Amino acid sequence: MRVFPWGFWLLCVASAPARGDSGSKARSCAEVRQLYGAKGFSLSGVPQAEISGEHLRICPQGYTCCTSEMEENFANKSRSEFEAMMKEAGRSVQATLTAQHRSFDSYFQDLLNKSEKALYDAFPSMYGELYTQNMKVFKDLYSELRRYYRSSNINLEEALNEFWTRLLERLFKLMNPQYHITDEYLDCMVKHAEQHKPFGEVPRDLKVKATRAFIAARSYAQGFLVGSDVVKKVSQVSLSHECTRAIMKLMYCPHCRGMSSVRPCNNYCLNVVKGCLANQADLNTEWKYLMDSLIVVADRIDGPYNVDNVIGTIHMRIAEAISNLQENKDSITAKVFQGCGNPKISTKGSSSEDKRRRGKVTLEAKSSAQALEMLVLDAKGNLTALKTYWITLPGSLCSKKVMASSVSDDKCWNGMTKGSYLPEVMGDGLANQINNPEVEVDITKPDMTIRQQIMQLKIMTNRLGNANIGNDVDFQDTSDDMSGSGSGDSCPDDVCGKRLSKSPSTRQPETHAIPKQSGHGINGASSRSLPSASLLLLLSVAVIAPQHLWR
User: What InterPro entries does the record point to (predicted)?
Assistant: First the structure.
């Protein structure tokens, strides 16, 4: 006869923790009310003291300070706050990459501007009419160089060849003013003159060096913008329904349970965030490749490709080429006449020989090699630091934003109550979340927006790889008609352009139905919560009463 009362009271005692430390006395909900109001919600209907929590769908169903409406509001709030954390972290990376792009772009544009200004300052006194009557040829060259750097769909080698051809035609006419030289004769002259190298080795040498330098420079600059754009797009990916539930349970359920001062367990937080950011972590491999490729090209820019020396001395190379032509003017003219015949004598008066050159001016290039070295050093440091961004993001968010407890803390919020957290921490990436105890993740359905960004990283890394060995790569300028070059590796719409300012890709991310609840979420929430006292009382009667009757 003693079995019934002892068993009954034993089960009743076991039910006490569901009520909290205060035993039968309901705890005050003052802290939750204060938090709820601070989040901008009305306090109307908010309990003054704990109530039974059978109505809860996310938090454990023990005694609680949260109504169904509060739970829903907290869930929406946790979603917006976590997405804001993601965007804030992303903006920091974007700011770093954008600052690196801005610094290099300013440096490179300054190199071109100084070279062009030096040409405009020195050439009038050096060459007189040779320059003043052909000013547009020089302006067009620098304009083409800038267009190429800004990713216009032009061929740099063709642009340089066109410059030397136009310059030769103009200078040949000016140096032979006594002849009437037609366009047909100039075509013949160009064909014959090319084999005699009227400008010496300058055109070939400049083409090789300038092409490599410009290819590396524009790919390098674009790499920063593409990286920044990828972070921006990925940071805007919305949380899944399951993730929202998990974040709510992590951030606000302890408040509902009357444990506002208890911080989330570190490993618990990591599992939640790793589950939520599983797709983002899959960016890691291609992201690291992009960072490494930018570092390699940076070394090229400051090393073998010698951007400072090549770009900053273009005007000097042009002056050297013109001097070669002047020195070999008679022999070149004789060979052209031999191949194309003697042109007709012009009836117009000839220009004075003195107008072709008005004294010798020494051209100098102010080196900014030290500035480039510092730029590259700073960039390499930042790129190295960003390599592991996607896989260190969960730890960073947990420690700095969610304010999780230390790893050794055994009195932290573990998703159910205050205590230790036993499950192991999941690995990084989608495939590793198959057994995530906190977030139900469908590993068969990757996020399409993020997969698109992984492809953009691959494309940009491939371009940088080509730039590293001096191979030209295709870019499209947003100011063009976007017809492209027909290359299979042409730049996608949402990657290229002067400032990556194109509208987003027209391809819409795929959407998937929310998976059915299975041990998690709305229907399975109670399976991991503490039972209420009334429920235990009923169970005690159902289990022990038959024993009493049998005896």
Answer: Glypican, Glypican_CS
| Residues 263/405, Cβ–Cβ less than 8 Å | yes
| Residue pair 413/268 in contact by the 8 Å Cβ criterion | yes
513-516 long-range contacts (CB < 8 A, ≥24 apart) are 514/240, 514/241, 514/242, 515/242, 515/440, 515/442
User: Pick from 498, 500, 502: which is nearest to 146 by CA?
Assistant: 498
Cα–Cα distance between 90 and 157 in angstroms, integer? 39
Q: Buried (b) or exposed (e) across 4-37, using 16+ Cβ within 10 A?
A: beebbeebeeebeebbbeeeeebbebeebbebbe
pLDDT tens readout for residues 24-39: 467 899 999 999 999 9
Predicted confidence (pLDDT) per residue in 158-207, tens digit: 999 999 999 999 998 888 888 888 999 999 988 877 788 899 999 999 99
Overall number of domains in the chain: 1
Domain encompassing residue 142: 78-345+365-432
The residues near 257 (Cβ < 8 Å, ≥ 6 apart) are 59, 60, 62, 63, 64, 65, 417
Give dist(CA 497, CA 488) in Å, integer.
18
The answer as to whether 489 is a domain residue is: no
Contact between 478 and 497 (Cβ < 8 Å): yes
Taking the chain, what is the end-to-end CA distance rounded to the nearest angstrom? 8
The residue-averaged pLDDT of 461-476 equals 84
What tokens does 337 get?
């006449």
Report d(CA 547, CA 543) in Å as an integer. 7
Residue 308 lies in a domain: yes
Cβ-based neighbours of 139, under 8 Å, separated by 6 or more: none
Q: Decide the pairing of beta strands 344-345 and 418-419.
A: unpaired
For residue 335, tell me if it sits in a domain.
yes
Comparing CA positions, the residue from 429, 461, 447, 431 lying closest to residue 512 is 447
